[in-house]
User: What shape does this take?
Amino acid sequence: MELFGFVGILRETFRILLSKNGKLIAVITFISMFFSLLFSIGHILFTVRLKEDIIEKGVLIMLSGPMDPESADLITFIGKDIGILLLVSWAFFISNIILSVFTMVSTTFVSARFYQEKEKTSFSFKELLLKVNGSIFRPTLTLFYILLMCIGLFSLAFSLLVLLSLFIDLFTTLKAIAIATSIIVLTIWLYLSVVFRLAMVISVLDERFSGIQALGKAGGLVKKKRLDGFVLNLLFAAALIAVDVPYIRMRIDIQSASVVIQVIIGAIVVVFSEFVAVFEHMSYTALYFECKRIHGEEIIELQGNLEYKKLPSMAITAEDLP
Assistant: This one.
């Protein structure tokens, strides 16, 4: 993979996709898309009606006045609807996290087989499920630490915007600062997520690392390839933003589209997003093995697991130079 940095990684990703286990990657992608569609459609159908109900009750309260006896009952119903909405949204979030971890772990295992001699034989779905079941805890723990760091980063950015709003009265200026801050935070996130995503791959393939240890290992391993990872993140983010932003704007204004249109557009967004996610997992698996190669570690196989062995380095002295 000496070709133009990140371009070489993308080329290697396509080689993984076209390998003997490419069909299994297609199966993983289909499963991920199916359940993601199921969760998303259920979330849309359930929450759209709840939101409409909340808005209708709110309009009735405004028309009748807050002192009207019926308004108290309407406020109670609104509170219950909001509670149900939050519960459904939380369940949707947790379901997607579980699905994302499964997709990431299974795709990483299948992609890693490309670098093993066993790639000459097919990787059965049953064997894959056994591997996923035996290693799901490590990437889950690593993801927990990553989410904590994300919460810290975005909380810091939000606190900064709130602080600035106390000293800036002009809305146009505050809006410009908010946009600039968002771009900076997104750039920092894309840069840091090179380590985050590589740490997830390490948590799957190396039983010795999880959580903070995986993040530390990833930070040291990716030093020479961080820019390539950052460019990959830019490409993936640009692809997702191009599709997600129009969809999010449509969801905010629920009156602008019928439920059927929302479901259809949502399905297209989900299918595209899941395909990008699977491709991203393959790319980071390829990046991981490229980082291993650069650090002089060869891949050896022991009872079906990936292990690494440091190759002896040869120091170059003045006598070696022509």
Observations:
- Residues 299-322 have pLDDT under 50 and may be disordered.
